[in-house]
Design brief:
The complex is a heterodimer of chains A (about 130) and B (about 220). Chain A contains 4 helices and no strands. By secondary structure, chain A is mostly helical. Chain B has 2 domains: about 100 residues, RNA polymerase sigma factor, region 2, helix turn helix motif (Rna Polymerase Sigma Factor, Chain: A, Orthogonal Bundle); about 70 residues, Arc Repressor Mutant, subunit A (Orthogonal Bundle), CATH 1.10.10.10. The chains are: A mainly alpha (about 130), B mainly alpha (about 220). Chains A and B meet through helix 1 and helix 2 of A and helix 3, helix 4, helix 6, helix 7 and helix 10 of B.
């Protein structure tokens, strides 16, 4: 007698009585959800949504701040160049101030968003 | 128990299962019809697959996880997963190895989870099996003494060997199908089977129900 024969003669254990019903019920439930189009998609919890918004805010802040700083450097240089042609280098401070005003506002918004994003998960965790 | 050369394993199983028996042909037809019907939205047709394979799959799960509750959970999950992923089943291949592969992977997850829980709780991972015939929960499913001894010997194997034995000897799957189910090479499966046979031979040598059997094969 071989091991194959030993296993062939081994009877299958009986499945638990409620197995068919349990599987059928689970499949029926799945099918109904699928038919209704309401298959459970894991909904983000409030905490994880807050985290997502925090990340978005932080990244947006960094992008705005970087963009604004880059723009300021380019624009100021251009303004200075233009001013230097017409007004001379001694008037550069005036053009600097004029150019910095909108940039400063954008930079502030960016910084605030960044800080909000950075501290939000800590607040959420508490 | 005879020791078969691992290189002949596929031939041995292939010879047993090819060409398909008269019983296998209608089974394959029934499975194909049920799969097509389920894919066309007939949920009730899945009942045919359940009827055909639930006992076999429960037996496989029980042999792998060694817990009736765990086996029931794995069997349920395997059928539900098969239902939800039926679109991924390739009809040109036999259905049961596909289903068994799902069950084995779920059973392996179950074992890993169970091991983690036992480790955390400080309970022994390997259940003790020397507390008499009522200690093993499988006893309520296996009645005969000889069958019980074989089940217990298989249950005592390391999980990799146990799964390989269950799929190859018990479920009649080919070595390459077992390899696919376990995510290993055919060579690894042959090694697992070789070691399992060696361990089983040693374990069953001391069992009275297998004593004559040993002498016969020696």
């Amino acid at each position: 007698m071989t091991i194959h024969a030993d296993f062939t003669h081994l009877p299958e254990p009986e499945e638990p009585p409620g197995l068919t019903a349990a599987i059928t019920a689970r499949i029926a439930q799945l099918d109904e959800e699928r038919a209704r189009g309401t298959i459970e998609t894991p909904r983000a919890s409030l905490a994880s949504r807050l985290d997502q918004w925090s990340w978005v805010a932080a990244i947006a802040g960094v992008v705005i701040a970087t963009g604004a700083e880059t723009y300021r450097l380019i624009a100021d240089e251009a303004a200075l160049d233009l001013a230097s042609i017409r007004l001379g280098t001694s008037m550069g401070g005036v053009t600097d101030l004029l150019a910095a005003e909108p940039t400063l506002a954008i930079l502030t918004v960016g910084l605030l968003l960044y800080l909000a994003g950075m501290f939000a998960p800590v607040r959420g965790a508490n | 128990m005879s020791l078969v050369d691992p290189d002949d394993l596929d031939d041995q199983n292939g010879a047993e299962r090819s060409p398909p028996t008269a019983a296998e042909i209608p089974e394959a037809d029934a499975v194909r019809a049920a799969v097509v019907a389920v894919r066309n939205g007939d949920r009730e047709a899945f009942g045919q697959l359940l009827k055909l394979y639930q006992r076999r799959l429960f037996g496989l799960s029980l042999m792998v996880v060694r817990s009736p509750e765990g086996a029931e959970e794995v069997t349920q999950d395997a059928f539900v997963r098969a239902f939800t992923r039926l679109d991924m089943y390739d009809e040109s291949r036999p259905f049961y190895p596909w289903l068994a592969t799902i069950a084995v992977r779920l059973a392996q997850n179950w074992l890993r989870r169970d091991t983690r829980v036992r480790t955390r709780e400080g309970t022994p991972i390997e259940p003790e099996r020397d507390h008499g015939p009522t200690a093993d929960p499988v006893d309520k499913f296996i009645v005969g003494e000889r069958d019980r001894q074989l089940w217990q010997a298989v249950a005592a194997l390391p999980s990799g060997q146990r799964v390989a034995v269950a799929l190859y000897y018990r479920q009649g799957m080919k070595v390459r199908e077992v390899a696919h189910a376990l995510g290993v090479t055919s060579g690894t499966v042959k090694t697992l089977l070789f070691r399992a046979r060696r361990t089983l031979r040693t374990a069953l040598k001391t069992e009275p129900g297998f004593a004559g059997h040993q002498e016969e094969d020696a």
